[in-house]
Specification:
alpha+beta
């Protein structure tokens, strides 16, 4: 399984699940399931089918995903030690660019999902942090193991990182961003993210 496929799978399986089964369901897992059900209902809505409804469909899915993902925390972790060096203005600029970077990768994947089954294999909670392990079986009977890392903010359990087959999303981007910043600057990273955004 090559690295590109794994990263695409990370983003895709985070929002699109098929038939689900579980023997243990705590609060973090149940909240993830609720988000999943909402996304699936949008994908199944006949009134939102077709290319003419693409923008509306994606906006609805994004709104649902925003309720479950802590984009600021993911952005902070992706910059690691470089985050503390950023000004409030730089942080406000980086967060939406980071979020958009992920959106561009998974938008098409989400709508063309081919996941057949998801099995919730277990959940471990430690205070305000939790990890949920799942096994996803594709339509081609390929098993993909995913672990969601979640933390509690108020009454909500929010995703701040996840991995597929041991490859973490945040760690993947942390490595890339760190290399750019050390070789050049944070401003160069922002420049590259803006350039990618302008390609849309």
């Amino acid at each position: 399984m090559n690295r590109t496929f794994i990263i695409q799978a990370i983003l895709c399986v985070s929002f699109t699940f098929g038939r689900a089964a579980t023997g243990f369901a705590g609060e973090p897992l149940e909240q993830l399931r609720q988000t999943t059900d909402k996304v699936l209902s949008v994908l199944a809505d006949q009134a939102l089918k077709g290319s003419a409804k693409t923008r509306e469909r994606r906006e609805r899915i994004q709104k649902i995903v925003d309720e479950r993902f802590d984009w600021e925390e993911m952005a902070r972790r992706s910059l690691a030690r470089h985050w503390a060096q950023r000004t409030p203005e730089e942080k406000r600029e980086f967060i939406p660019l980071f979020k958009e970077l992920l959106e561009r990768v998974y938008a098409d994947k989400v709508e063309g999902y081919s996941w057949n089954k998801i099995l919730y294999e277990g959940e471990h909670t430690d205070g305000n942090y939790a990890a949920v392990k799942v096994k996803i079986t594709t339509a081609k009977d390929q098993a993909i193991h995913v672990e969601y890392r979640i933390w509690k903010k108020g009454n909500d359990w929010l995703v701040y990182d996840f991995s597929v087959e041991g490859v973490g999303l945040v760690n993947n981007y942390r490595t890339q961003f760190n290399e750019i910043i050390l070789k050049s600057s944070f401003q160069e990273l922002i420049k590259r993210l803006k350039a990618k955004s302008a390609q849309n």
